[in-house]
């Protein structure tokens, strides 16, 4: 079973770095291994952090990661994630997932209808107040659901910061790694992490992340756009139904 966790981690790591939604694969695997959903949620954070550290190294080595801007937008996302984890029990998650599913499908339409937005860097007048609010709200979502947060980060980074999809992915993995470091500490303090399963899963995630980062840099944003399109259509339909 641990071998299947490793294989599932490879696919999840690839999807998480390339687009998002890998946790939809790893959480069922961890529960199938006998972990309760809360422990699976905490254990999954080990893999998420380590996969993103691998991706960060690759993107940084190829000069695709804008560290200053990644750090700036990580701050409100971290704050939002802390708030999200504390209000999670008060939110109707079924309704929220349906709303997010509709957002994903709208994003899928824009990937086809307005492709240049996603495949080219462009000059954009940055409203930092709007940027901070957007990333704070995405952090809230990530704080209590996590799965699919990459699909929200990608349009925010592309539309508000003006980057094509490869550079967008580089900033995305930095943000997700940042707030999950704090989330993991909280899960560990509450005894909600299985380290053996977490590190086996992480080996798979790190392998998938390395492959995804290198492929996205090599193939470019046009190729990434189609991977993202397929992933978010599947996630959107799953969230709605």
Structural notes for this entry:
With 241 residues, this protein is mostly helical. The chain has one domain. Helices cover 83% and strands 0% of the residues. It has 11 helices and no strands. The chain has helices spanning 2-18, 23-32, 37-61, 67-87, 93-113, 115-119, 128-144, 149-161, 165-189, 195-219, 221-240. The longest helix has 25 residues, at 37-61. It is globular and about 50 Å long. The model has no long low-confidence stretch (mean pLDDT 82).
Please give a quick description of this structure.
The chain has 241 residues and is mainly alpha-helical. The chain has eleven helices and no strands.
What is the makeup of the main sheet?
Answer: none
Oligomer: single chain
Radius of gyration, in angstroms, nearest whole number: 16 Å
Give the helix proportion (percent range): over 70%
Query: Which structural category do the helix and sheet elements fall into?
Result: mainly alpha
Please outline the helices and strands.
Layout: H1 2-18, H2 23-32, H3 37-61, H4 67-87, H5 93-113, H6 115-119, H7 128-144, H8 149-161, H9 165-189, H10 195-219, H11 221-240
């Amino acid at each position: 079973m641990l071998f299947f966790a490793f294989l599932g981690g490879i696919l999840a790591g690839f999807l998480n770095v390339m687009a998002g939604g890998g946790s939809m694969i790893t959480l069922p695997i961890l529960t199938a291994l006998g972990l309760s959903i809360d422990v699976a949620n905490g254990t999954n954070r080990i893999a998420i952090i380590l996969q993103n550290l691998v991706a960060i190294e690759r993107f940084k080595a190829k000069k695709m990661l804008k560290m200053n801007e990644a750090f700036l937008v990580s701050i409100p996302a971290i704050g939002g994630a802390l708030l999200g984890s504390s209000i999670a029990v008060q939110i109707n998650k079924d309704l929220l997932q349906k709303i997010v599913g509709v957002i994903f499908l709208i994003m899928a339409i824009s990937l086809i209808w307005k492709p240049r937005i996603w495949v080219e860097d462009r000059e954009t007048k940055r409203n930092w107040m709007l940027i901070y609010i957007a990333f704070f709200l995405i952090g809230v979502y990530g704080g209590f659901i996590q799965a699919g947060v990459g699909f929200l980060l990608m349009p925010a980074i592309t539309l508000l910061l003006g980057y094509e999809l490869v550079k967008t992915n580089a900033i995305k993995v930095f943000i997700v790694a940042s707030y999950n470091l704090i989330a993991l500490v909280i899960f560990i303090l509450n005894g909600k992490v299985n380290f053996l399963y977490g590190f086996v899963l992480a080996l798979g995630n790190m392998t998938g992340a390395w492959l995804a980062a290198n492929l996205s840099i090599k193939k470019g944003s046009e190729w990434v756009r189609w991977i993202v399109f397929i992933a978010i259509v599947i996630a959107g339909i799953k969230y709605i139904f």
